[in-house]
Amino acid sequence: MAVLASEVNSVAVAMQGVSKRFVGAPRFPLARKPAVLKLALDDVSLQMPSGRITGILGANGSGKSTLIRILATLLTPDSGTATVFGDDVVRRPADVRRHINRVSVEASFFKEMSPWENMLYAARLYGTGGPGTRDRVERILKRLGLPLDTLDRPLKQLSRGQQQKVAIARSFLTSPSLLLMDEPTTGLDPRSKREVQDLVRSIRAEGAATVLLCTHDLEEAELLCDQVVLMDRGRVLAEGTPHELVQAHAGPDGSLEDVFMRLTGKRIEEEEESAQ
Fold it and tell me: Under DSSP, is residue 1 helix (H, G, I), strand (E, B) or coil?
């Protein structure tokens, strides 16, 4: 069940001085050089308000997915603290998991099972299954533009875009207080992308959940997000509403793409290529 902001506080997510390093392979394995430490998050501090859509913007390798995984209790920060609705992700991970659900660019399923079986399993796991579950699933899929005749087919027979829609539907079925969306529209065709974006907008309008949206699509962020956090190489470069950032860094006729160029000296597409 969703946590009301008034029952906790106005802050859904708080991070203070969070850093995370990964040990990578040496660049030349036969040279017997020590492994390389990659700094994925570098002293990140930020707050995300309840009931809003906050966008974490940056290219691949900027630290967006690491940040999401820490909030989802899948990774432990090397230093600093992170809380979700007041619960510490390290000291109270079980409580944090009750608040959240996560949609990633590569959704995990039981591929031999149908979408309905996958979603029923998730609903029972979260304690939200019961009478009326099938009707709820059908309503969510209809809003996402997914034909109902796909509901009972093996998931492996569905397209990549259809599987992503099922992942999004599954996340809504469990009624999270905080929905973590990691590149949810990547790989979708233009129509499916619009349908997912419309659903995200409806969450904000209905006050159904707080949303954290990680994306490298700056146009999508400008369209959907109440607040954005711009990241590059593990650090927060700027944060504020899209309008505030554009006014401060790009002028009245600018865009978030212009803001990114002003702060990094590169277009985000160039950052994407260099991160690969």
Answer: coil
Class of domain 5-19+37-275: alpha beta
Q: CA 86, 88, 94: angle at the middle one, nearest 5?
A: 100
Take residue 188 and report the two structure tokens written for it.
């979708």
**Which pTM does this prediction carry?**
0.81
Cβ–Cβ < 8 Å for 220, 208: no
Q: In this structure, how many other beta carbons lie within 10 angstroms of the beta carbon of residue 273? A: 12
| pLDDT 10s digits, 127-139 | 666 778 888 888 8
Q: How far apart are CA 111 and CA 124, in angstroms?
A: 18
> Per-domain residue ranges for the chain?
5-19+37-275
- Output the average pLDDT for the chain: 83
3-state secondary structure of 90: coil
